[in-house]
Amino acid sequence: MVRLSGQASSGEVRMARSAVHGKALVVLTVITAVLFGIPTAARAQPRLPAGDPVVVSLGDSYISGTGARWAGNSDDFLFDRGGTDRAWSRPKGKLFGSSDPAKIYGATAKTGCYRSDSAPINSAVAKGLSLGRPVNLACSGARAANVLRASEGGVGMRGEQPQNDQLAALARTSRVKLVVLSIGGNDLSFPDLVFRCITAYALRNDPCKTKQQPRLDVERPAMGAAVGEVLDDIRATLAGAGYRDGDYRLILQSYPNPLPSASEDKYEGYQRAFKWTGGRCPFTDPDMTWTARQVTPSIAATLKRTAHRHGATFLDLSNAFDGHELCAEGTRHPKGDPVSAAVEWVRFVDYTGQGDYAESLHPNFYGQQAIGICLAGAARITGDSACSGTPGRGLRGLRVR
After folding, report:
1. Which of 13, 137, 235, 347 is buried deepest, with most CB atoms within 10 A?
2. Phi, then psi, of 304 in degrees rounded to 5
C-alpha cells in the first residue's frame, strides 16, 4: 500500500500517544512530589557541602571532657596539687600562682559544659583519627532531650541550642565524616545513684545496690528508647542536610567502669577512714563490685542493643580503664610528674573543694585520652568494637578488638 504524504502509520500513532502519556505522567509525578513531599529527580537531595571534613562528638560529660583538668589524683592542696592540676600556673617572677579552669575548658568552664582540650574527640584526632578536624558539641549534664532537635521536642541547656540543631548548622558548612555519641547516664539519674551510694557508706547503712538495682531495672528500657530516638534524629538531621547513610559513620559508645571490684580495691582491709581521707572512693565493697560487674555491663548491653536497632555501630568502653579505676590496686597518688601507667584515670570524689565536685567520678586527663585512643581504633573497624586496658601499662596498654 502506498502511504499518502502527511498520513501517519498506526505505529507512529501509537508512539505519539505513548509520548503524550509519558509527558502527562512526568507532570503528575512532579505535582504529587510538590504536594506530598516525595523526592524525584526534579527534587534531588541537596549536594553535600564542600567545606572541610569534621568528626563530631555529641552527648554528655563523659565525652564533653569533664574531669580532664586532672592528671591523676593527689592529696596535696598546694600549688599544682602534686603535678595533677593542669589548670595551675605561676607567672614568671611571681611567688604565687593560681588555677584557672578556663585553661582546660575554655569558655565552657563558666557555662558548665566543660568541653576540655583533651576531650575524646580531640584526643582521637591527636592519636591517629584522620577523618577530619574535631568538633565537640557535647555538654556536661546532658540528657537525651538535650541532643534532640527542638523540632523533635529537644531542649537546649546552659544557654545553647539542642546539640542536633548545632549539628544541622555544622553539616551545611562542613563535611561530617563521623558522629560519636555518649548519652544515657543522666537519663538513668546516675549522679543520684552515686550520691545514694556515698550516703550509704557515710552513714554505715546497707549497700545502696539493694534499693538501686530494682530502680535501674525499671529505668534501663526507657533509657534505651530515649537513646534510640537520639540516634534516629541524628540520621534525620544529616539527611535534611543532604547526607546519605553511607556518607558518614555513626558510633554509640558506652561508659567505662569508674570503680574496680572489691577484690581489686587497693584499700581492701584498710580502716574505713582510708577510703575517705586517702582514696576518696567512699563506696562499700559490695557496691564497688556491683558497679563493676553489674551496673556498667548492663548499661553497655542496653546501649549495644539500641545501637543495632537504630543503625549505629557500638563501642564498648566497659573495660577501657582496667587497672586504672578509682582506687584500683597498683595505682598511686603522684607527688609530681604523673604518668599514665601509675595513676588512676578517674577523678576522685572531691568533697574537700580541691577542684569542682562536678568533675568527680569522671575520666581525668589520662582517661579522656584513653577514650580517644579507643575511638580512633574503633573508627578503623567496620563493625562493633570493644576497648580494654592493661593494669600497669598506661595508655600504651589499650587494645581495641
Report:
1. 347
2. -65, -45
